[in-house]
Design a protein that fits this description.
Largest sheet: 8 strands, mixed
Shape: globular
Distance between the termini: 33 Å
Strand content: 15-25%
Bound molecules: N~2~-sulfamoyl-L-arginine, zinc ion
CATH superfamily: Zn peptidases
Strand order of the largest sheet: 1-2-4-3-5-8-6-7
CATH class: Alpha Beta
Length: 312
């Protein structure tokens, strides 16, 4: 029970997560991983039908909202929470996997896009020994420790692709890193949800080369895209699947799915959800489409989880 007819502030998302944790105490655990730079909690749900000390099932980890202006991302993650608790139509997904669902990696940026600057992308951190006090924020998706700051990044705190002054300088990316590390042996599938472009992207995004698991990444990527397209609308673009540097036409180091794959997650993807527009307006998908995108994106998660378990 969270409205999908409009974009929601952080307090509504967190109230929903708390409500779900209260109503489903046997399967849901609410975790506050850390506080953001400005002191907001960074929260995720663990969903499991067995006790949380049981480590026998594969884990599916999905995060959203690292780029704060990409407003369509967090609702697709809360929709997944809904489909695993309030409205279970695929019980195998609940029974056969443990889930970690983190709707808003970057709560400071997310709130700033409502209160100040709609198209803010980065965190809101500052540090005293650089011009970052004039220009706050690090691009979370350039801050992971994979080929950090080598390509498609900036050393300038005023840039939207500022990599930060070191890998994992941001508490927000540290939270994702720590989840990946804690559950690494069991994470069968990691998806980080962005917008926009109707794409499913996989490693390696810093140089356009394919990983040892390139065939698996492509096969499961295509299966997920087909499932999404099957539920799509005529005015939505078909999904494109491929290596992120090749599909996007730019290389960028320090991104989340590359980091996850580099430490051993076999299937790691960036989803770029539909934008249906050009320029910054693509980050503001008409709210009439929120529920549609949530439904079709869930179909992608479903197929991804099932295929990941077969390969795991
Ligand atoms: O550039 C990004 O961070 C992502 N696109 S976005 O428009 N949402 O900012 C794409 C990241 C793709 N992955 C890698 N470059 N590894
Ligand atoms: Zn993004």
């Amino acid at each position: 029970s969270m409205p999908y007819n409009n974009y929601q502030r952080l307090d509504v998302i967190y109230a929903y997560m708390q409500d779900i944790a209260n109503r489903f105490p046997n399967t849901v655990r609410l975790v506050t991983a850390a506080n953001s730079f400005q002191g907001r909690p960074i929260r995720y749900l663990r969903i499991s039908t067995t006790n949380f000390e049981d480590h026998s099932k594969p884990v599916i980890f999905i995060d959203g909202g690292i780029h704060s202006r990409e407003w369509i991302s967090p609702p697709t993650v809360t929709w997944a929470i809904r489909k695993l608790t309030e409205d279970v139509t695929e019980p195998d997904l609940l029974n056969n996997y443990d889930w970690i669902l983190l709707p808003v990696v970057n709560p400071d940026g997310y709130e700033f896009t409502f209160t100040n600057t709609r198209f803010w992308r980065k965190t809101r951190s500052t540090n005293t020994h650089s011009s970052s006090s004039i220009c706050p924020g690090v691009d979370g998706n350039r801050n992971y420790d994979f080929a950090w700051n080598t390509v498609g990044t900036s050393n300038s705190p005023c840039s939207d692709i500022y990599a930060g002054d070191r890998p994992f300088s941001e508490v927000e990316t540290q939270v994702v890193r720590d989840i990946l590390q804690e559950h690494l042996a069991r994470i069968a599938l990691y998806i980080t949800v962005h917008s926009y472009g109707s794409m499913i992207l996989y490693p390696w995004g810093h140089d356009g080369s394919l990983s040892h698991n390139g065939l698996g990444l492509h096969t499961v990527g295509v299966a997920m895209a087909n499932a999404i397209d099957a539920l799509s609308l005529p005015n939505f673009p078909r999904y494109v699947v491929g290596n992120s540097a090749l599909v996007l036409n730019y290389r960028a180091a320090g991104a989340a799915e590359d980091y996850a794959h580099s430490i051993g997650v076999p299937l790691a993807y960036t989803y770029e959800l539909p934008g249906l527009s050009w320029g910054n307006q693509g980050f503001h998908l008409d709210p009439r489409y929120i529920e549609q995108v949530c439904r079709e994106t869930w179909a992608g998660f479903v197929v991804g989880a099932r295929r990941a378990a077969e390969l795991f």
